[in-house]
Amino acid sequence: MNKIQHVKSITEVHQLFQLPKPKHPLVSVFRHKDLQIPTNFSSISFTTDLFMISLKENQQVVVNYGREIYDFQEGTVIFLSPNQVFSFKSADFSNCEEEWTLAFHPDFMTQNLGNDIDGYHFFNYEANEALHLSEDEKLSLNDYLDKIEKEYYQQIDKHTQEIICINIETILKYCQRFYARQFITRKMNNNRYLAKFERYLKNHFAQNLTDSGLPTVKQCGEALHLSAHYLSDLLKAETGKNAKEHIDLYTIKKAKTQLQNHELTISQVAYNLGFDYPNHFSKFFKSKTGLSPSMYRNSN
Question: At residue 72, does pLDDT exceed 80?
Answer without folding.
Answer: no
